[in-house]
Design brief:
Blueprint: H1 4-19, E1 42-49, E2 52-53, E3 56-57, E4 64-73, E5 78-87, E6 93-104, E7 107-112, E8 117-125, E9 128-133, E10 136-142
């Protein structure tokens, strides 16, 4: 039998890997006005999901609240994603994911060390990075 912390960790892993930061989808053609990949390097803190400031309901998992999340994009094209969330009234738990990233046009691709590939369109304005996947929009601020 799984313990409550194990259930929350599994739920958070689903949020982190399969939902919270993009899924396979169709994307518009690369835009000539997209920011160069080097402009994406840095630590980004998620500030809102679908316009709702964190903490916010997960757009992919019912009864899961995302407390905080950050995405570090390194110049060597490695990335680290951290999400702290909780299901219902359980204590928050943190899930981390890492791998490599690339950007082409206005598409950001995360290749997780688990072999899962996630893609989303992005736009960059000053210190605000907006990531979009179908009906979900994530707003991130440079830390």
């Amino acid at each position: 039998m799984r313990t409550a912390p194990m259930r929350i960790a599994l739920a958070l892993l689903l949020v982190a890997v399969s939902g919270c930061m993009g899924m396979q989808a169709s994307y518009p053609a690369a835009s000539a006005s997209a920011a160069p990949a080097s402009a994406l390097v840095g630590i980004w803190r998620v500030t809102a999901v679908n316009g709702q400031p964190l903490p916010a309901a997960s757009p992919m998992e019912s009864n899961v609240t995302v407390e905080r999340s950050s995405l570090m994009l390194q110049a060597n094209h490695n990335y680290a994603l951290s999400i702290t969330a909780h299901a219902g009234s359980e204590s928050p738990a943190e899930v981390n994911q890492n791998g490599t990233w690339s950007a082409s046009g206005n598409v950001l691709t995360l290749n997780a060390s688990t072999s899962r590939v996630t893609r989303f369109t992005y736009s960059l304005a000053a210190n605000t990075l907006t990531l979009r996947e179908d009906a979900v929009t994530y707003t991130l601020e440079r830390s």
